[in-house]
Each structure stands twice: as structure tokens, then as C-alpha cells.
Amino acid sequence: MSAPLIVSIPHSLGRDEAIRRLKTGLSRAAANVPVLSVDEERWENNRMNFRVRAMGQVAAGHVDVEDAVVRVEVTLPWLLQRFAEVAQAAIQKSGQLLLTKR
Q: Mind telling me which InterPro entries this protein's record contains (predicted)?
């Protein structure tokens, strides 16, 4: 089993507002990436468990939302691990855009 990919995204929205924004964020992000589809998105309090599919491979993980940081942890299958740096940068960028105070 490979080590999970972990991305921490600081924010100043507070937990409730961050959760509100993230509840639509994964599906919206997947809509902008043609090779990505969301198989599962399930919220339990301040944690979202998810499973996504890219290039025929399944990746699963969770998002923990705290008052000042969102922590994304995803385990990529071996075939997608070659794209881990690209995935990490994309998660960081999308998360920051979604969690920027407006």
C-alpha cells in the first residue's frame, strides 16, 4: 500500500462556511476535469469521505475540515502515483480558490 497524498489548505472562513463551500466543491471540480468522476461523496460531521475515478483507476480518501485548515488525504493507486505531484498542486490550487474569503 502506498503512502497517502496529504494536502493542508489554510483558510479563515471558519468550519461551517468551509464545509458549506466544500459540499459543492468536489463535484464542481470533477466537472472541470474530463478524466475525473466522483463515485462517492459522503459527509459525516466535519469529514467528507470520497472515492473518485480517473483514467479507469479509483482513488479514495477523506477531507477533514477544521476552523482554520482543511486537510485532504487521498490514497492513489500505483498507476496514478506518477501524477501525485500534479494532483497535489491541483488540489492545493482548487482548495485555495474555493476557500478564499469573498
A: PHA_gran_rgn
**Residue 10 Cα to chain centre, angstroms:** 14
Which amino acid makes up residue 75? T
Strand 69-75, strand 47-54: pairing: unpaired
Q: Hey, which residues does 62 pair with through a beta bridge? A: 49, 73
Phi, psi of 30 (to 5 degrees): -65, -35
Which pTM value belongs to this model? 0.84
pLDDT in tens, 26-49: 777 777 777 778 899 999 999 999
Architecture label for domain 4-77: 2-Layer Sandwich (3.30)
